[in-house]
Amino acid sequence: MNNNNNKIIKTITQNNSNIDETEYQAANTSFQSRNQKNQTFHKQFFTFKNEKRSHRTSYSTSDSIYIGNYVNKKRNGQGKLILADQSYYEGNFKDGEFDGFGFYRTKNYTYKGQFINGKKNGKGKMENFSTKSIYEGEFKNDMKEGYGIEKYNDGSIYKGYYKEDVKHGNGELSLKKEKNISIYKGEFKNGKIWGKGKYKWDNKKEYEGDWENNEISGFGILTENNIKHIGYFSHDKKEGYGASFYIEKKFVIFGKWINDIIEGISIIFSLIDENNNDNINEKKIVIMKEGDIINSNLTEEEINEIKINNNEYINSIKLFHEKILPEYYKAINI
After folding, report:
1. What is the C-alpha to C-alpha distance for residues 243 and 293, in angstroms, rounded to an integer?
2. Exposed, middle or buried by CB within 10 Å (0-12, 13-18, 19+), for 121?
3. Whole-angstrom distance, CA of residue 321 vs CA of residue 276
4. Which of 182-186, 236-240, 276-280, 301-305 has the lowest mean pLDDT?
5. How far apart are CA 266 and CA 285, in angstroms?
6. Cα atoms in the 13 Å half-sphere on the side-chain side of 70
7. In the predicted model, what is the mean pLDDT of the chain?
8. Helical ranges in the chain per DSSP H
9. pLDDT-based confidence at 275, cuts 50/70/90?
10. How far apart are CA 311 and CA 143, in angstroms?
């Protein structure tokens, strides 16, 4: 933008007069010959009819045309700049760069807002032609950074924080599909759902807990079909210890899940009274395989052997009472 080679300069000193539009045509014939089809556009863009214009400069180079204030051989103050690719800027300049408030249009987007030292900095509004999205918020060094609101072509909306042009930090994403809307509220990292958050699908499925790389991973609560599963997940599946609370049927099954299926030693509890903090009673220990009970008739001796000598069982029961049950009580507001 600072290339002033081969420029031809005219200084305008007329005051309070009607200025003929030919005064503002590009002076460089080589530039005009390469862009003859755009001459009408150039002429229209640089016409100032019935306006006061004094001590302003009009010049063209091999790749640009400028009309505006010119101080110390640089663009300073208000002006208009058009480039050979038809991108243009109208607004404030400082030392030859976009600086202050202005409007910038390229073949890919438009931006209206604040600039510092030639880059988008501060608050502004950008419309992207290829994605058909509109962003309004904060910018830093030509990138979305800080708080902003982005509206997408399909009706989806993101409200939250950005870092280096991607979602990063706390935000709310409303995803629209036809007439249905799914909503996520929580943390983002490098443009992805990552951290702690709550996702509510349009089919009433809901998850609140840990996320990683746009997937349910870590500890959380999944509510679906009136079943509340509290425990560990990996890659959108139940993985590790957890408990499924069948609230309507008044029972809980606790155990270890592998690839979304409960396996091995498991415990079935009964739900007594949701208004009582002591509402969980152990009913029986069973053996599960591929999600089905294969042995529910363990002898008293076998049960005692599991309870006394199986360290994994002992640790899992501790996890159930110290971490899973408190989350369940919290979820049902006890």
Report:
1. 15
2. buried
3. 15
4. 276-280
5. 6
6. 19
7. 83
8. 29-34, 39-45, 300-309, 311-319, 325-331
9. low
10. 53
CB 256 within 8 A of CB 241: yes
Return the residue matching tokens 């969980």. Answer: 280
**At CA 235, angle to CA 229 and CA 322, rounded to 5?**
40
* Pair of tokens at residue 264: 């091995």
Quickly state the pLDDT bin for 279 (edges 50, 70, 90): low
Residue 84: strand, helix, or coil:
coil
Name the residue type at position 215. Answer: E
Q: Which residues contact 32 (CB under 8 A, 6 or more apart)?
A: 26, 39
Structural domain boundaries of the chain? 215-334
Q: What is the mean pLDDT of residues 37-41?
A: 45
Q: Which residues contact 296 (CB under 8 A, 6 or more apart)?
A: 284, 286, 287
Query: The tokens of 295 are what?
Result: 């042995």
pLDDT higher than threshold 60 for residue 166: yes
Which of these, 38, 26, 132, lies nearest to 85 by C-alpha position? 38
Q: Which amino acid is at 38?
A: N
Q: Is 298 helix (H, G, I), strand (E, B) or coil?
A: coil
pLDDT given for residue 106 in this prediction: 96
Inter-axis angle of helices 311-319 and 300-309, to 10 degrees?
80
Phi, psi values for residue 213, rounded to 5°: 55, 45
Least confidently predicted of 31-45, 132-146, 149-163, 185-199 = 31-45
Q: Which pLDDT belongs to residue 6? A: 37
What value does the CA radius of gyration of the chain take, rounded to a whole number of Å? Answer: 33
**Distant-in-sequence, close-in-space partners of 179: CB < 8 Å, separation ≥ 6:** none
Residue 54 reports pLDDT greater than 50: no
